[in-house]
Amino acid sequence: MDASGAGDDTSAGTGGAGTGRGTGGPGASRARPAGDPVRRLLATVLACEAVVIALAIPVAVAVLDVSGGTAGAVCGGLAVVCLLMAGLLRFSWAVPAGTVLQVLVIATGFMVPTMFFLGALFGALWGTAIWMGRKAREAAAR
């Protein structure tokens, strides 16, 4: 019993100590390079936006008498595109494409009027994420 317990302590103690892979080892802050702050912020906005758009489907069907197929195709399609776009932000064309996506989300207000407000809110978050992410990138470069 003592031998197995000591063996566990020894293997746990040497696993991350000199390699920089543990939370307390030397170089732990350098173990994972920080990603692009613009991309992280924009991906967060898109992921949250996908949830909100998907939640507009039952509202459109139950409250506003939009057909389930139409609501599912429009809102569901946009939610999937938001998630895909969040994964494609590493490409230079993705930010302008995401901006177009913001306009399409605002346009869903013709189906669910509350989406005019929510789409504008996410559009503002999109612009703010670009601005704040660039400021964070510049600050990290100094």
Automatic annotation (TrEMBL):
Biased composition range(s): Low complexity: 1-12
Cited InterPro entries: DUF4233
TM region positions: 41-64, 71-93, 99-132
Stretches with biased composition (Gly residues): 13-27
UniProt-annotated stretches for the region Disordered: 1-34
Keyword presence, Cell cycle: no
UniProt KW keywords: Membrane, Transmembrane, Transmembrane helix
Name the UniProt record assigns to this protein: DUF4233 domain-containing protein
Organism: Actinomadura litoris
Lineage per the UniProt record: Bacteria, Bacillati, Actinomycetota, Actinomycetes, Streptosporangiales
